[in-house]
Amino acid sequence: MKAVVTSADFNLADNESIEAGESATAVRDVALNCLADGKVLYAGHAVAAVAATRPEIADEALELIRVEYEVLPHVIDVDEAMQPDAPLLYDDMITQGVTPAPTRPSNVAKKTVFGRGDVQFAFASAAHVIERTYRTAAVHQGYIEPHACVASYGADGQSTVWCSSQGQFLVRALTAKILNLPLSDLKVIPAEIGGGFGGKTTVYLEPVALALSRKSGRPVRMVMSREEVFHASGPTSGSSIDVKIAADESGRMTAAEMNLRYQAGAFPGSPAHLGAMTAFACYDVENLALNAYDVVSNRPKVAAYRAPGAPMSAFAVESAIDELARELDMDPLELRILNGVRKGSVTVYGAKVHSDGFIDTLKAIRDSDHYKSDVPDGQARGVAAGFWFNIGGESSAAVHVDETGGATVVSSNPDIGGSRASMAMMAAETLGLPIERVRCTVADTTSIGFSGSTGGSRVTFATGMAVTQAAEKVVEDLKRRAAEIWECDAGHVDWRDGAAHCLDPSKDVKPLKLQSLAAKSAKTGGPIAAEVSINAQGAAPGFGVHICDLEIDRETGRTTITRYTAAQDVGRAIHPSYVEGQLQGGVAQGVGWALNEEYIYNMNGVLENAGFLDYRMPVASDLPMIDTILVETAPNPRHPYGAKGVGEVPIVPPLAAVANAVSAIVGKRMTSLPLSPAVVTAAMEQGD
Amino acid sequence: MSRVRVEAVVNGEPVDFLAGSGQSLLDALRDELHLTGSKEGCGTGDCGACSVIVDGRLVCSCLMLAPEAEGRRIETIEGMAEGSNLHPLQHQFLEHAALQCGFCTPGLLVAAKALLDKNPNPTEEEVRYWLAGNMCRCTGYDKVIRAVLAAAADLRQEGQPA
């Protein structure tokens, strides 16, 4: 046994928040989530760590640690946590965002309000009002690779961490701040990442491992078991949402009200506000009143999960719209086309919609073979839509031309789903090289400029923009070199098909290929390379529309998806088969969320299904082929190749697409996810 | 810690290594033989990322003890390609973009090979049920299933007399 650490080894004085992908994270909360201080907030919350030369020795050492626990009352359910008599996680938590500030503490960390117009007036005069409460369970991202890292604290104070994360720079910032180290003394080397989906945009192990290394003077490896991943890494919020919509006789939605209550887990930071912002982002509704509540309870701290906050609120809204369509006896797609945002529409958070991408996507689904086909006997069809912002932000990239005319792209973002291929393609296109001559690598924190994390569907857009700009700088440099060789004006050099072409009619020269310019680099100005660091603006949002056909075994309550089509407004697909893969993967996760996945707690507040056997993610035999329609009618004008984020939108529509179809078969509105066999059989037996 | 000497054939090569009595075959492959292609996603036999073929039978190497490998023939992902010639399954996974993060891919390839070794002409449903023990969280399985069916067709083609 070499070392023991607790939260006493952390710097807890600092309570700054740092940007972590789609939201800010409080460093102190991240530290206290790694190792508890005084109060253990959920079953699975770590209190101490030991380092030993073998795992068995570490296990024995852990057994020898005596922890005196006083069992306190706990609260798991989000609605119960909001009750006035609920056990409090923090004695000093006063709800932010409420004026005047409450005088008593509660489990509500924050209330966020979005609204416009006169909701009450609109409801008073509405021809149709649809109102219900919806619930979703907490679900885990379910990446197949558990969290793991190696940390080495050098005798000279210079440290290295090797880890699998969605952002080496974020791991550096969190780890260094938690251990009170200068950022420049910590090098973080990104390993290949075995899935993240948002869940690897924070740290659980790295500060602990580095603290152990600092104490023991040895490199320390930490690996979570799958059980630990479920118990102590972040799922996304379970939710409880009231939604009420008003519509006129034609089906035009005139107003909506929502209260969104999201579990944050043991520390503030649920994506409730994102749920509110995205809820009606697909629709042009004049009067809105949306209240989002960020609520702590005795569960693991939530982490980002693909379009954080949006799938739950879309489940509520898209279910309500389905109900409205039935009440109006109107085609659910036509109802959405009637209400959908168009170019010029303004969202509740003030952003303007710049394209008709949503309407185009609705029409693509309406005109699809799937939608035009009859619903098979005994089955039902559900449709639903979804929205995600997509972000840009800080990215760096370099392009290096080697002396034989090939190129290396250095990316600043871990490749989570094939982004290296897209980076190489954009560089190859700009340089005019065949793709085989361009390779892309992901650099550590000391080898490339800063970048935000791989999250928010930002990498192909933002880092792709940096790659393209770096390649453009290289092209400019190559044109300058050609002009020097030809003794002509640089303005008279054109770059196409991987070669400089002289436009000066007085010169009779052959094009100069990249290969020959690269071979002469020493004589024309030295190495050919460029690095670009940008804060990318102009990320365009994305819209998805899905159709799901399914059947239910009346005896067992098992739902089988028989056919599924996902259409999405993707800007321009840089690598179409990877874009299809993003849509298909998002659908599979959404179907799991709708049908089977959930965190199940016992009366003692202990998670009962912390393994892949009992936390039931979709397997190959659970799904059909997932057809995709890439709608490319609105390339993003702010990106050199028209790209925008595609990865998150596809997890938003499936919850309601599935639930709407299940509701049709069961004959009553299904308002609580997951629609597991037990829930469905109970609903069918009960009738309406 | 008592360790036992184990002799086995891994990817056609005789190997010997020292294994802990409680060490899994997966850990022995990764830590003693440095064959890190097989992955641990769960350690409980649920995810299939550690799939290997032992004496012709598909097993989760996280559920088998390393000393049990004595005298066995083990095939891992590292033995699938012949030099730089990819196995048709590997080729079709690339052609179909049937992977994103790639963590489950070695297990999927090994499991798919075990299927095609037994059944050269599986239906889509047979492929889906055979691979139901191999979780993939990225792809939604669509491209994986298509790649396996395409590789099966390639292998049948190869098997035909010229």
Descriptive overview:
The complex is a heterodimer of chains A (688) and B (162). By secondary structure, chain A is α+β, with helices and mostly antiparallel strands. Chain A has 3 domains: 3-71 and 147-223, Aldehyde oxidase/xanthine dehydrogenase, molybdopterin binding domain (Aldehyde Oxidoreductase, domain 4, 2-Layer Sandwich), CATH 3.30.365; 239-390 and 540-686, Aldehyde oxidase/xanthine dehydrogenase, molybdopterin binding domain (Aldehyde Oxidoreductase, domain 4, 2-Layer Sandwich), CATH 3.30.365; 393-536, Aldehyde oxidase/xanthine dehydrogenase, molybdopterin binding domain (Aldehyde Oxidoreductase, domain 4, 2-Layer Sandwich). In chain A, 28% of the residues lie in helices and 23% in strands. Chain A is built from 18 helices and 24 strands. In chain A, the strands form 7 sheets. A 5-stranded mixed beta sheet of chain A has the order 5-13-12-11-6. A 4-stranded mixed beta sheet of chain A has the order 9-8-7-10. Chain A has a 4-stranded mixed beta sheet with strand order 14-22-23-24, sandwiched between helices. The longest helix of chain A has 28 residues, at 459-486. With 162 residues, chain B is an alpha+beta fold. Chain B has 2 domains: 3-79, Ubiquitin-like (UB roll) (Roll), CATH 3.10.20.30; 88-159, DNA polymerase, domain 1. Chain B is built from 5 helices and 5 strands. Chain B has helices at 25-32, 88-95, 105-118, 124-130, 142-159, and strands at residues 3-10, 13-20, 51-54, 57-60, 73-75. Chains A and B meet through α16 of A and α4 and α5 of B.
Strands, helices and their partners?
The complex is a heterodimer of chains A (688) and B (162).
Chain A: E1 3-5, E2 17-20, E3 23-26, H1 27-34, E4 49-51, H2 55-64, H3 78-81, E5 108-116, H4 119-124, E6 128-136, E7 148-153, E8 159-163, H5 168-178, E9 186-190, H6 206-216, E10 220-223, H7 226-232, E11 239-247, E12 253-265, H8 272-279, E13 287-296, H9 310-328, H10 332-339, H11 357-366, H12 369-372, E14 380-388, E15 393-401, E16 407-411, H13 419-431, E17 438-442, H14 459-486, E18 493-496, E19 499-502, E20 512-513, H15 514-519, E21 528-536, E22 542-552, E23 559-569, H16 576-595, E24 626-631, H17 654-666, H18 677-686
Parallel strand pairs in A: 8-9, 12-13, 16-17, 23-24
Antiparallel strand pairs in A: 1-4, 2-3, 5-13, 6-11, 7-8, 7-10, 11-12, 14-22, 15-16, 15-21, 18-19, 19-20, 22-23
Helix pairs in contact in A: 8-9, 9-17, 10-11, 13-14, 16-17
Chain B: E1 3-10, E2 13-20, H1 25-32, E3 51-54, E4 57-60, E5 73-75, H2 88-95, H3 105-118, H4 124-130, H5 142-159
Parallel strand pairs in B: 1-5
Antiparallel strand pairs in B: 1-2, 3-4, 3-5
Helix pairs in contact in B: 2-5
